[in-house]
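Notebook entry, cofactor series.
This is the third protein in the set we're modelling with a bound small molecule. For this one the ligand is guanosine-5'-triphosphate. I'm keeping the input format identical across the series so the outputs can be compared line by line later. Sequence and SMILES below, as received.
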Amino acid sequence: MFDNLFNKNKEESEKVEEKEDLQQEKKGFFGRLKEGLEKTRKGITDKVDDIIKHYHKIDEELFEELEEVLIMADIGFETTETIIENVKDKVKERKLTEATDVKDVLKEELKERLEDVEGDSKLNIEPSPSIILVVGVNGVGKTTTIGKLAYKFKNNGKKVLIAAGDTFRAAAIEQLNEWTNRSNVDLISHKEGSDPAAVIFDGVQAAKARKTDILICDTAGRLHNKKNLMNELNKIVRIVNREYPDATKEILLVVDATTGQNAVMQAKVFKEACNVTGIALTKLDGTAKGGVIFAVQSELNVPIKLVGVGEGINDLQEFDRDNFVNAIFPD
Ligand SMILES: Nc1nc2c(ncn2[C@@H]2O[C@H](COP(=O)(O)OP(=O)(O)OP(=O)(O)O)[C@@H](O)[C@H]2O)c(=O)[nH]1
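Returned structure with ligand:
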């Protein structure tokens, strides 16, 4: 009887999830992005609008106040300075005098800043087979990101396999298991406490044998000891390079936007530990400081590839700099 009740509840909650997914589809990706960036929009655009209203004409004080808004939004000190200097230059060059003109120049400059990075903003998954190593500290949204990616790839007709390399927490393996059930993809896992590199090794062998298009590997993200973290990640990267030399590779670092400047620090440690090729910035919906995206990308010189703007399946989006800035500064 309890089994029946459990199954009924499960079915009902799956129906609710499906309904939510459908509602999200209807809103469209840009609508979801805009909604997810609402707090950041209020933290930047509303304040910029207030400044513009107050000043009417462009002067030095206006720039000082703009600078303050950008720093408060966690864009980072250095990046903010560069943005303000460039906006000033453009204003001078174009002989602009009205405060209202500054907004468009700022928008243009923010888009340029996001473009100013080496590498493509698309995930390296072509040609197949490909392997995505997902790295980042605990709690930043790694498991959720892997689950959402697997679901998307599967829906796009790809053959996907997940390797549960975070063997330090049984809950992480269990959570991945739930996502794989939901997306109907296979999971390679060992028991809690086993060697993460052995799981990744098995994952690669299974991916080859099953002719998988994309293998996504979770990794453990304990940051308390940088040397251990480096050794562990290096070992995994070595195994992947040795066992799967021809696979297209992506090392995706997941960082939590709500941790602000801490996200930048974390990202730097991981970049030292392994050759990070892309960043997924999660939980942008939970912060007014979404400006951290500028700091992360410019201080690391690694492209942002994915942004998380909510917990729903469609809330993990491919990063598009124009859409991103337009969602913060709607016309
Ligand atoms: N609001 C919001 N929540 C998110 C987003 N991405 C992930 N989360 C939530 O963040 C929490 C942590 O996510 P996990 O995927 O468990 O994080 P993890 O990095 O795998 O953490 P460990 O399993 O502890 O290593 C979960 O409750 C997720 O639903 C996002 O973009 N927006």
